Amino acid sequence: MELFNSLKDSFYENFIVDDRWKYLTDGLKNTLLITILAILIGIILGFIVAIIRATHDKTGKMKILNFFAKIYLTIIRGTPVVVQLMIIYFVIFGSVNINKVFVAVLAFGLNSGAYVAEIVRSGIMSIDNGQFEAGSSLGLSYRQTMTSIILPQAFKNVLPALANEFIVLLKETSVAGYIAIADLTKGGDVIRSQTYDPFLPLIAVAVIYLVMVMFLTSLVTKLERRLAKNDKR
Amino acid sequence: MISVNNLNKSFGELHILKDITEEIHKGEKVVIIGPSGSGKSTFLRCLNLMETPTSGEIIFDGVDITKANIKEVNLLRRKMGMVFQHFNLFPHLTIKKNITLAPVKLGIMTKDEADKKAMALLEKVGLADKADQFPTQISGGQKQRIAIARSLAMNPDVMLFDEPTSALDPEMVGEVLNLMKELADDGMTMVVVTHEMGFAREVASRVMFMEDGRIVEQGSPDKFFNNPTNPRLKEFLSKVL
């Protein structure tokens, strides 16, 4: 009973007083906004880079683009995302007044794009060459074969890996606080710094991340199951 | 219809096709046989540029296709259907969509026209009831018949068959060969790489024997099988017949 009462007091102190719960909900809004927009950038950029790399691997064309794609992949995958975030904010946009959330979207999108690219490329390369040959033997161009035969199959194959990447991305946005964005993690931390009570704010933050990840995972499972209906290999 | 002049193909150091000169006429059913590694599949795959020849020319409808740009190549491939050993159906599409994909994408037919054509072809290959199933749900023989229907949907002038029955269970070989026979009877120009000697004997207008990158003997099935002259062919036939 005593434990319950102290928890109740702590809950009141951490979340109700001064509407402190708003730190979490406002933070969650930023976290979601950054994640969703970064996923969009990641998908678009990732698919473009993957197609460039796969086309180069398969046909030997696009040498110059492939060269730049490789540099991009090496740099992004070779450095921590929090360092990339800070470089973009403090160095690249250091002298201009710019929306921090925009910077975070850009940084996390660029970062995710590199991982998506390698995932999608492995998906494209895993499709049997006979599929390319069947497409071109019917007179379809490389692009048509890619978009209507290869990519749909590749996408299906890499869906679990892609979903995993986006779940990682959601959690990685927790470093957005490094450029003073009030995201979910930062929100919990602000409450902690006001109440000097780390337990409930941080547990609350963890639970919110966990619930979001579990929700995303269940969505992906559903999608996978629907796609698998067409294709029992 | 197809003239091949001094065709060579190498993979690195490996010289697969050696200076092949050959002519395939409209309406012919050419069957190519030979031991594995003799270059028969490579020769067939050069005809629609699935493999790029190292040198030589391939003249199809009066155009040297080895010098054509990629757009022209795509156009000529519409006129050359190809059937693969491993079917290569599109597993993410229904049987019907497998057939209609190319004609619709290429703007040759509207979706309705393509659907009609697909159903007519499925009727022809005896698989109309499978239209809405996926390739994973049908047998190997059925897959190959669908693959043939898919090629026919483009109204090709010539059909290339690359060991179409080699990946099939023995009991499914017959249904595919029968369909190919029907196609031959309809007057389709066909080039077939196969190990099915019965098919060669019965359907071919000309049989070729390839050995070490060259066509070493060819002739009518009757002469080819009953009076072979090349010693290597004699040995080959004694083993397979």
Model description:
Chain A is mainly α and 233 residues long. Chain A has a single domain, classed as Orthogonal Bundle (MetI-like fold), CATH 1.10.3720. Chain A is built from nine helices and no strands. The longest helix of chain A is centred in the N-terminal third of the chain and has 39 residues. Chain A starts with a helix and ends in a 5-residue tail after the last helix. The model of chain A has no long low-confidence stretch (mean pLDDT 92). Chain B is an alpha/beta fold and 241 residues long. Chain B contains nine helices and ten strands. In chain B, strand 7, helix 6 and strand 8 form a beta-alpha-beta unit. In chain B, helix 3 packs across helix 4, helix 4 packs across helix 5 and helix 5 packs parallel to helix 6. The radius of gyration of chain B is 18 Å and the shape is globular. Chain B starts with a strand and ends with a helix. Classes of the chains: A mainly alpha (233), B alpha/beta (241).
Set out the fold topology.
The complex is a heterodimer of chains A (233) and B (241).
Chain A: H1 2-16, H2 21-59, H3 63-78, H4 81-92, H5 100-126, H6 129-137, H7 142-172, H8 184-195, H9 199-228
Chain B: E1 2-11, E2 14-24, E3 29-33, H1 40-47, E4 55-60, E5 63-64, H2 70-78, E6 80-83, H3 95-105, H4 111-124, H5 140-152, E7 158-162, H6 170-185, E8 189-193, H7 197-203, E9 206-211, E10 214-219, H8 221-226, H9 231-240
Parallel strand pairs in B: 3-8, 3-9, 6-7, 7-8
Antiparallel strand pairs in B: 1-2, 1-4, 4-5, 9-10
Helix pairs in contact in B: 3-4, 3-5, 4-5, 5-6
> N- to C-terminal separation of chain A?
57 Å
The ordered H/E elements of chain B are: EEEHEEHEHHHEHEHEEHH
**What is the CATH T-level topology of chain A?**
MetI-like fold
- Please give the count of helices of chain A: 9
Beta-strand content of chain B: 15-25%
Number of strands of chain A: 0
Strands of the largest sheet of chain B, in order across it?
6-7-8-3-9-10
- In terms of DSSP E residues, the strand content of chain A is under 5%
Uncertain runs of chain A: none
Structural class of chain B: alpha/beta
What Rg of chain A do the Cα atoms give?
A: 22 Å
Multimeric status of the protein: heterodimer
**Shape type of chain B:** globular
Query: Mean pLDDT across all residues of chain A, rounded?
Result: 92
Second CATH tier, the architecture of chain A = Orthogonal Bundle
Beta strand count of chain B: 10
The outline of chain A comes out as elongated
Radius of gyration of chain B: 18 Å
